Amino acid sequence: MDRRKFLKWGSFLTVSVATTSLAGCGGSNDDDGNESGGESGGQTPPANGSITYSFPQGVASGDPRPDSIVLWTRIEGDAENAVPVKVELAYDEAFTQKVNLTDATINAEPDWDHTVRHKITNLLAGTTYYYRFTVGGTVSTVGRTRTAPAEAASVDELRFAFISCQDWSVNHWAAFDELVKEDLDFIVHLGDYVYETVGADFQSGVVESAHGKLTLPDGTVGADGATYATTLADYRTLYRSYRSDPRLQALHARFPMIAIWDDHEFSDDCWQDHQTYEVGDDETPRTARRRSANQAWFEFMPADVSLDLSNPSFNNIQIYRAFRFGKLASLVMTDQRLYRTDHVIAETEIGSEIGSRYFVPKALLAFEETTKMGGDPDNLTPVSILGDTQRAWWKRQMQNSTATWKLWGNEVSLLRMQVDGTRAVAGLMTQGLLALAPSLAGLASQINDALVQDLTDADKSETVAQTSFDNLTALLQGASVPSATITTIVGALTAQLPPSMLLNEYLLNVDQWDGFNAERKNMMAHLRDHGIQNVVALTGDIHAFFAGSVMADYDVATADLEPVMVDLVTAGVSSNSFFSYFKNVVDTNPAFAAARALIYSESAGVITNTFNDTLNLFNSNWMKYADTNAQGYAVVSLTESQLSCTFKKLKPLDGDQAPASPAVASQQVLTVAAGDPNVSVVLPV
């Protein structure tokens, strides 16, 4: 196949090689050879002088390695033809010390939406560079980037931020104004860079006036009235729109980004080429839609990956990859959507996402997972997030890394997030009983234990659980509580009995690693058995801040829990919070109305978040920090002896405006000491 045609249709990542000499002040870095993607037989022709060109999405860089970087831009002006673009690189922002480049003029092709993805190799390690693009007489914004340290280099400190979930349609993007002020080496983006839906229920609420309502050129209207991206034109529209925001442009121009996708770059809670908007939706592959999503991400992200359009399947791109930052750190970025199997409990089995992906009975999930595995604990193929090939690659990367810290760009949380419905309801009933009979406060612990036993023994064959509260009655009689008082208490508690289904142990979200428990245990066993230390996951997705230890097995007795690594989870940049989702569930689903007090309380119109306390109550052995109602980002400072992570929580909207700078409302510092897979919570800043 012709080389230029291969570049055009197979990968479209063009390459320049930096030479060792400087171009000099005012010098040229043009090359007279045949450029990648240019016309055959000579130098790339100049841009059409009668057309006004622009760079409406700015510039970006990504995937920093010791000797290379990927540069990105997009050109508008000539919609029909290839546009020759010149790239320049320098050691200074004024471009007085330019770097000589081969193949420095490339074509922005209409087949790739006139985007440019240009890799420059043979660069100096640990070096700051400046870059820009020129079309005709139009010059782009100047971008700043930095290569990674040499693999054998000693690095005193590495500083980076990790972010995710930047929904255009809700809240604000003041986070980017704050991030550009940080002193960072790079940004890790954990996905949900764009949201494929417009007008979905989870996108309800006020949005800053700077973000107008998006319109998709094609789009499909779902049962809930939301429109979701369907075609390549739709997905391109999303990226063009998101990248039009000057704050996001400034972030890209300031720091190189290492990005991975999560679900919303294709479809909410997706797996492979399957969507999950409605019950039964995921039984039909959406291959063309998935391929469109793949291509748009590929076109707009400065990632050192290839796309094979000649491959007719949805699996035509590999975005999992690894990075190294001197002796200090390695970083693996995994793809947790393209290879994952269906959720262990199918939506068609339950009839709703509640019970199949959220609020899932733990025992039912364990049974279904074991059944799918055929009773073989090593048969992870049917119950996997990573897929067999990527999991084996992950294990090799972890085992072979000689860096002090092994960082993992991990889209969905590894932490167990569970609620024991029986204990939770018993706790709420105890509070109600003591409000009715304050004189019994001295028996609070015994009352709670008795109620736990009564609810455990309750008849759950009917819609509402039934019990005569024998254990509680015996306790109160033994404490010489008058019979009339006992009768009143039992009557009041009987009226509060919840739906039977609530008296269960629940996993809150099995779209994350809780839903793929066998694979998680397998991977943690690999780390433990090979003595691999200092593994820290950088996680997004769940729209909340969390921090804690990942256990070898969460289902063993408390005394046998064994921490293996750490999971640090950042809140979304702008997406509605984890708290808001569960508040909506208990407000709108009658089966879970009795659990409302576990999520929030309300007095005189003021809502108080109780969800944080609920999660801490049932997950305290591993979860050390939780803020479920937040937007923000995380900044990491890494040294040989310690990882320090600061969760930066943003202020809310001011009417329909982003909050004025400084937009950070509070900061929480967490530390991880080398050799210790536990998190220490430092007093809030």
UniProtKB/TrEMBL annotation:
Region Disordered, residue ranges: 23-62
Domain Phospholipase D N-terminal: 57-147
InterPro entries: Metallo-depent_PP-like, PhoD-like_MPP, PhoD-like_sf, PhoD_N, Phospholipid_Metab_Enz
Gene3D superfamilies: PhoD-like phosphatase, Purple acid phosphatase-like, N-terminal
PROSITE patterns: PROKAR_LIPOPROTEIN (PS51257)
Keywords recorded for this protein, A-Z: Hydrolase, Signal
Keyword Signal on entry: yes
UniProt-recorded Gene Ontology molecular function terms: alkaline phosphatase activity
Domain PhoD-like phosphatase metallophosphatase: residue ranges: 160-645
Annotated protein name in UniProt: Alkaline phosphatase D
High-level lineage: Bacteria, Pseudomonadati, Pseudomonadota, Betaproteobacteria, Burkholderiales
Gene (name only): phoD
